[in-house]
Amino acid sequence: MKYEFINIYNNPLDIDTCLSKEIKKFYSFALNYYKKDLDKRTIYLFVRYVESFERFMFFQYPNITSINEISEKHIISFKDFCIDGLNNRKTTVNSKLTALRYFFKYLSEEGLIDYNFALNVSNFKIDGKLPTHFTTSQLKVLFSQMREFPYGIRDVVISKLVLTTGIEIQDILNLKLYDIDINNKLLTLPDHQYPLGDSIIVDLKNYLSIRNEINSKSSDFLFLSRVGTPYSIRSFQLLFKKAITYTDIPVDLSPRFLKMTFLYNMAKVVKEEELKTISNQNKVEQYYSLLKNPLQNII
To answer: How far apart are CA 216 and CA 224, in angstroms?
Structure first.
């Protein structure tokens, strides 16, 4: 199916729709009522997915002007659009459907719709199991390829920070120069301290020498683009994907699998409860278990 609006679909809407106010209210509601089940990042992502549905409704069904006019068929149509128009993976579409189920549950509880009809739209069945982590040999090949790109050492360091600390990519991209203590081999954030292995320290030193050359805007951000602006997650994802395509590593292995690789390897050396603490980033002292991470010095 052809979607004539596909080229402008990702542009922010310049007017409010019948969903706009409720999406904002849903975000506040979710932060308060789902905080035990969903972390803030997940709630934020769900809101972005609901906004994606809002844009679809705006372009595909411009005559819909009231929430109670939306029905199950519109969600099914959105599901098809995600596959045929956005080329989303089935797992991504399933996540979007989950977000809509939460949103329409909220709308039903507010009395804005009769019932949560989003529950009637089934997920895609996933054939087979996607790769869940990188092997050590794959990481070595990947990093070798990254180093071939201009400033690719930056992306190697970002990847290694995920693999050896478990910090989310966006949080790593938000790091400032003063968060790193090279001499003491520490990454320090509010309430958290992350010990760093010798391997990543060597790469950090190499990256910092390059950073001095591109820091044309006197930025405090640790990771910079080639023109001195803060490095974006989109740019990281594109370079990561480019590096993957130059190797024989399965293309399904995207940046999000770095965190899974971290957890997979930490599970080899810590108990389940400790792994839960580490992955949730709760207690400072637990991070010294990261020194046991087999990835610290082999990548």
So the answer is: 10
